[in-house]
Each structure stands twice: as structure tokens, then as C-alpha cells.
Design brief:
Largest sheet: 5 strands, antiparallel
CATH superfamily: Immunoglobulins
Shape: elongated
Distance between the termini: 56 Å
CATH architecture: Sandwich
Number of strands: 8
Structural class: alpha+beta
Length: 174
């Protein structure tokens, strides 16, 4: 076998592994589960503790550049909780600590406390629930350089229910 053939074979294997790993991360980003670390979910708690559990229900490693949870009220961002460089082992979960940023932290706190109280039936509905949305974005790279993200948008109450639903959570450690 000549030297050029060997170089082509090695390069092809490296490219195939890179493309395969990138494809796997894209597939994994669509399968990953998010859940709160506390017993009960609250937007206020999410903003202040910044902790969630991330579950990889698949039999291979998964790597993500960033996970972002954006809270949107009346079609404008009130804050973003972001987690960077997450590596998940097969069939496992990891608790991650994020950073919450907001242009108007007091408004974000007020709205999160208000929606927490409304969803717990502590106070009557005073703010239109349809105006609250949450967008989750999981970012990874294709072949290490091309950014790719999986984005899901939820109404506020639906996201609340997703974060509290321990029955549908793939990693049952509780």
C-alpha cells in the first residue's frame, strides 16, 4: 500500500468519526431532558439558584457548547439562564450551575414570583398567562466548527409542568 492511499484512508476515517460524532450530538440534543434539582419548580428559584439536572438517556457520550433557557414576557426577553460546556456520560444525568442575566433583574424577579404564585394557585390571575413563554436552546457544533442549535418554545405553564414532571424524566434517580 502506498503512502498516499494510507493518508487518504486515515483522513477518511477521521472525517467519518467527526461527522458521526457531530451527528450523534445533534441527535442527543433533541433527546436530552431537563429537570429542576429542587423538589418543586419555581421560576424565582431557577433564576436565583441557576441549577438544573440534564439527562442523557442515550448509550453514548454527548457534548454541548451551551444550554440557554430564555424567559420571554410580552415578546421581549426578561432574562436568560445559560450553562456552558456540558459533557454527559451515557445514560446519566449531571447537575449544572448556570448564570442568570437580565437587563432588568427587578422586573424579572417580580414576574417570576407572580407566575410562581399564579401557577401554584396562591393568587388570582392578574397578568395574561399567554404572554409568558420560555425558549430552550441547546447548542453544539457540526464537525467542531459549524454551530447548530435545537430550539424549543413553551408557554409559561407548559414549561413549568415539563420541569416538574418526574414521570417523563428519562433519568429516574429520585
Amino acid at each position: 500500500m502506498n503512502k498516499h492511499t494510507l493518508v487518504v484512508i486515515i483522513a477518511s476515517v477521521v472525517i467519518a468519526i467527526s461527522v458521526g460524532f457531530s451527528g450523534w450530538n445533534i441527535f442527543a440534543s433533541e433527546q436530552v431532558d431537563l429537570m429542576i434539582t429542587e423538589e418543586y419548580f419555581s421560576y424565582f428559584g431557577l433564576m436565583n439558584s441557576g441549577k438544573i439536572s440534564v439527562c442523557n438517556p442515550l448509550p453514548f457520550y454527548a457534548n454541548f457548547n451551551e444550554i440557554r433557557i430564555s424567559m420571554i414576557f410580552d415578546e421581549r426577553s426578561i432574562g436568560v439562564l445559560s450553562f456552558s460546556e456540558i459533557q454527559l456520560e451515557p445514560n446519566s444525568e449531571v447537575e449544572v450551575q448556570g448564570t442568570f442575566t437580565s437587563e432588568n433583574f427587578k422586573e424579572a424577579q417580580y414576574l417570576s414570583l407572580h407566575f410562581d404564585s399564579m401557577y401554584n394557585d396562591v393568587i388570582p390571575t392578574r397578568i395574561d398567562q399567554e404572554k409568558m413563554n420560555v425558549v430552550t436552546e441547546i447548542q453544539t457544533n457540526i464537525i467542531g466548527v459549524i454551530p447548530y442549535s435545537v430550539t424549543n418554545q413553551y408557554p409559561g405553564l407548559e414549561f413549568w409542568n415539563v420541569m416538574e414532571d418526574r414521570e417523563d424524566y428519562s433519568c429516574q434517580s429520585n
